[in-house]
Amino acid sequence: MAKPLHGSCLYHILGFVPEFGDTILPTITQEIKDERTSRIKIQNTPMKSRSPRLEGEIQDVSVDVNGSSSNRLPLTGRTILVVEDDELLLKICRTMVSQLGANTYTCENGEQALAHVCKGLRDQSQIGPSTPSPPVDYLMDCEMAVMDGFEATKCVRKEEARYGIRIPIIALTAHTAKEEIDKIFQVGMDYYLPKPLRRNELLKAIDYIEHRKV
Predict the structure, then answer these.
(1) How does DSSP assign the chain, residue by residue?
(2) What is the pLDDT of residues 110-166, one digit of tens each?
(3) Those residues with Cβ within 8 angstroms of residue 196's Cβ, 6 or more apart along the chain or in another chain
(4) Which of 20, 71, 161, 175 could serve as 180's disulfide partner, Cβ 3.0–4.6 Å?
(5) Largest Cα–Cα separation, the chain
(6) CA distances in angstroms from 90 to 57, 65, 211, listed in the order given
């Protein structure tokens, strides 16, 4: 969460926390901000928390971030692999991309992500002649134990070359210094987003990559 802290931001984050379960949260109807404080108005009619289901690795959620149903969410039909070693950030990222309509898989480190991608490429090649397409779209944390995002990306680039496919990879990073950004592109990542992940920034990144036909 970015400082200064505002009520609507806190409310939004609490909706992702699975520990709330079926806790009843009020609905924000208005927020008033100034440089020192933030006040929110809430309506008395409560609604349930939008915390995600935790069963399994894949989710296909058909509600948007405001909780309304939709058949035309911006990431509908996509399969996104979220790679993040921080448990809370992983849940937040998974929930966000799921609520945008994507099928979502998660990995805790680059080694797991590489294994998942390799399996997806093998399985796809066994289907038979077809137009090659990436098995997943990708969000990759840069700093992780076991295998970091940089090494995982280099390995993925070598593996996908055998199948004539290029998987879009978006780096998630807490560091935005020039040296870090240069390294992100040197290893073959296509875009980077600062943490915490934000809905609008993610959609802009995907739109940018698609128009470049990465």
Answers:
(1) -PSSP-HHHHHHHHTT-GGGTT-EEEEEEEEEE-SS-EEEEEEEEEEE--PPP-SSS-EE--B-TTS-B-S--TTTT-EEEEE-SSHHHHHHHHHHHHHTT-EEEEESSHHHHHHHHHHHHHHHHTS-S-----S-EEEEESS-SSS-HHHHHHHHHHHHHTTT----EEEEES--SHHHHHHHHHTT--EEEESSP-HHHHHHHHHHHHHHT-
(2) 999 999 999 988 888 776 555 556 777 888 888 898 899 999 999 999 999 998 888
(3) 1, 2, 89, 92
(4) 175
(5) 61
(6) 12, 17, 27
